[in-house]
Amino acid sequence: MSKKRYVVSLIAFAPIVFVSEQVQASMEKEKSSHSRTEKNPEQISIREKRRIVGGGMMKIQTSPRAISEVTQEYIARQAPTLSPTSLIASLPGIQAGNESPLSTQAETLHIRGLDQSQIGFVFEGIPTADVFSYSPWNAAMIDNENLASVSVTQGSVDLTSPLYNADGAQVTMKALRPTDKSGGFISLGGGTHSLQKEFLRLNTGEIGHSNTRAYASFSHSSANLWRGPGNVTRYHVDANIEKHWSRHSVSDVIFGYNQGRQTIYRYPNLAQWQQYGTSFNYTSPYTPGNYAYYRLNERFTNVAFGTIRNDIELGDHWLLHVTPYGISQMGPNNYGMAVPTANGYIGTQKYDYLDGYKGQNRMLLVQSVHPWEQRSSGVTMSLDWKTRRNTLTFFYFYSFADHQERQDRFVVGNDGSVTWKNPLTANGQLVTGYNINQNQQLNALGFDDKLRLLNDRLLIDAGFKATMVSRMTSESVPGANPYKVSRNNFIPTPQILARYQITKANQVYLNATTSYRLPAGYAAYVPAFGNTSPYPTTIPPNNLNPEYFIGEELGIRHNGKITASVAGFHYNLTNHQISSLAYQPGSTILVSSQIMAGGEEVWGVQAELATRPWHHLSAYLSGQYLHTRLGNNVSTGNDYLSTTGKSAPGSPKYTGALGLTFDDSVWFGNFNLRYQDSQFSTLMNDQSIPAFVTADLSMGRKLPVIGSRVHPRAVLSLTNLGGINYLSGLGGFGLTAQPRTGIFGNKVSASSPIFVVGSAFTIMATLAADF
Questions:
Q1: Which of 150, 240, 362, 381 is such that its CA lies 20 to 30 A from the CA of 17?
Q2: Which residues, 6+ apart, have CB-to-CB distance to 8 below 8 Å?
Q3: Residue 48's Cα: distance from chain center in Å?
Q4: Distance separating alpha carbons of residues 661 and 54, to the nearest angstrom
Q5: Which segments in the chain show pLDDT lower than 50?
Q6: Contact 278, 757 (CB under 8 A)
Q7: Are 296 and 418 in contact (CB under 8 A)?
């Protein structure tokens, strides 16, 4: 696209904007990405509270990019089992696939047409997504009771963030800081579907006169699956130790551990949804040969992480930030499948009989257990040089990660039970579809310079990052071609942003940013196999390059009785990669494959506004218009489909939300209404899921104080009022829902995209107290 068209598109989507700042003098001083501004509610200053509007669903922003945020004030009014992704579902441009009132699974999220694998997730300087597949693990990182805020940068990525999969959006979570006084918080809740959660946090307060504070918390939650048999259990620990060395020097030690076990939800295609509705899931009781038996399909989530965040003042003008971190994750994930006892395959190698099954020729029901383990560690460092009008930052990010995963097959007994002992072999070799090893080493360095002019009314921010990544993927099953792939990438990502304070209450900003995403998962590099054929179930694309994002935004903000923010945006994607998910035939194993979609162009407008309390009532409103266009005909392997000019899947044209909050210091409540337009599920735009509206309500009361320190409250949360049955999002895209003839005359088979089923109506009552 020419520069002239870029300018025209920006002008077309740029409404006349206003941005506000009654607290401009203090907020104009840009905080570094590691600044510590989030504390417990009782520690938040009056100045900080003035920035929170709409009952905590919006916070006044000053950065020259679109940012939306929910605060602890809002989070505390929601059901404590909601995931961080569900908490931001009302923000502009957000599509959050909420499939359950409690989940330990990876979640579905779209922002401005980008899916969760294209979005960066950061918690306290730690990347919170799978290093290779980019599936977010937000629900495993922190309890809601310890969550200070969740912010969404819809159209750009912070250069200093430790990310390498974020095209043009970033979700940032911040934890509460330890309190100055000792005490704690306890919460007990229960509801429909046997939903329950117990939470306890203890604060030390200041320890002696050491300027050191800490807290630790423990929680347990569990529920039955709301559709089909099975259950979910989750145990979680958070801990935080904060030490202030001087006025501007502080260290935080942050630790978390999560253990989850969940029966997996089964995703329907459109025909299955239309036929079975919410009853389509894994089944019970066990019948011989049934690989959809629910006890065979489970996911285990084990995550442990730690970080030490350090802000160190080196003098009047120098500030050093150092954050080392480490994460350990492991499974397994378990599925049901059928394996041939004779004339099957391991990779391309045929076996006569499974060991111990000589003379038998049948399909053997097994549980496919996928033990996986992933370790990652890294460090982010930045050095700020600050003068009255200029802040110059140099930064560096290093990380190393490795991942191992295979498939072990264990025979299912006549009663449906499985003993994890002696996995299936043939000729002494493990019967598996893949045996993957991946490792990655990354170095990124760059600078960012913020310059203030015209008596601080004008801010110009320019930066550049160079990323060097080495990734190796190997496949150990016989006949894999390629069996080992090593890729080295160098990716430059410049950014320039500017902001101008028109008046005390009105502000305009614009930016032009770039970012990238490395190809996701092992399927982008090496093949995987079934056991009934020598042909791969997934074939890696040739010469897969990093996806590259170039975006522009023009926005306005206003702060007064009504706080409003409007942004017009445009972006281009090159080397666009779409992950398609489908169930492997004869099993419940989800297989991911990469679709090379070429280029994509997107235009849109987003807006949000919020009010300050009026007669104890605050309002919030958000919305987005999105237009997407695919720029290429997509390859089907032996032909091309005419997808040029089609809309991108998973990109509804209109989305919107309304929020109302009431709080008179005794009674409080929050109501959310959300609308999501229909969206295509295939690149040929020949299948879609319908638009839907959902509503949630929470209400509560502060109870009389017990003694002098115990401050109890009761909350009732109702999710999905009306109990509508709906498809909340896409589990995986497809090429075409109808058989077609390609451009060169070859037949193209139909695909059956799978969908996430939205959560049922849920009631949860919670009794909580600060002490």
A1: 150
A2: none
A3: 27
A4: 7
A5: 1-35, 37-39, 41-42
A6: yes
A7: yes
C-alpha distances in angstroms, 100 versus 112, 263, 641, 753? 23, 12, 36, 20
Tokens linked to 219: 């929680």
Question: Left, alpha or beta for 407 (phi > 0: left; psi -120 to 50: alpha)?
Answer: beta
Closest of 47, 166, 113, 123 to residue 570, by C-alpha: 113
What are 153's two structure tokens? 């940068």
Going from the C-alpha of 618 to that of each of 482, 621, 623, 729, the distances in angstroms are 59, 11, 17, 30
DSSP 332: -
User: What's the pTM?
Assistant: 0.91
Q: What residues contact residue 112 under an 8 Å CB cut-off, 6+ apart?
A: 93, 154, 155, 168, 169, 569, 571, 602, 604, 606, 624, 626
Cα(441)–Cα(376) distance, integer angstroms: 10
- What pLDDT does 107 receive? 72
Spatial CA neighbour of 231 closest among 258, 278, 264? 264
Indicate the DSSP class of residue 408: E
> Among 647, 744, 719, which residue's Cα sits nearest to residue 686?
647
Cα 593 off chain centre by: 20
- Per DSSP, 209 falls in state T
Give the C-alpha separation, 547 to 758, whole Å: 30
Which residue, 59, 43, 62, 42, is CA-closest to 51? 59
Residues 6+ apart with CB under 8 A from 90: 57, 620, 622, 657, 659, 672, 674
Nearest C-alpha neighbor of 178 from the set 158, 210, 202, 154: 202
**Is 209 exposed, middle or buried (CB count within 10 Å of its CB: 0-12, 13-18, 19+)?**
exposed
C-alpha 535/C-alpha 523 separation (Å) is 14
In the structure encoding, which two tokens stand for residue 633, read together? 């005909």
Q: Which residue has the tokens 């849109």?
A: 604
Predicted local confidence at residue 46, as pLDDT: 60
Q: Return the DSSP state at 647.
A: P
pLDDT of residue 355: 96
- How far from chain centre, in Å, is Cα 175? 17
From residue 561, give the alpha-carbon distance in Å to each of 184, 281, 505, 571, 724. 36, 49, 10, 33, 36
DSSP E strands in 584-690: the ranges are: 590-611, 617-630, 634-635, 640-641, 654-663, 667-676, 679-680, 688-689
Tokens of 181: 């006084």
Cα separation of 515 and 467, whole Å? Answer: 10
**Contacts with 542 (C-beta within 8 Å, 6 or more apart), sequence order:** none
Residue linked to tokens 């209109």: 654
Distances in Å between the Cα of 298 and the Cα atoms of 72, 292, 295, 367 are 33, 11, 7, 10
| CA 356 from centroid of its chain's CA atoms | 45
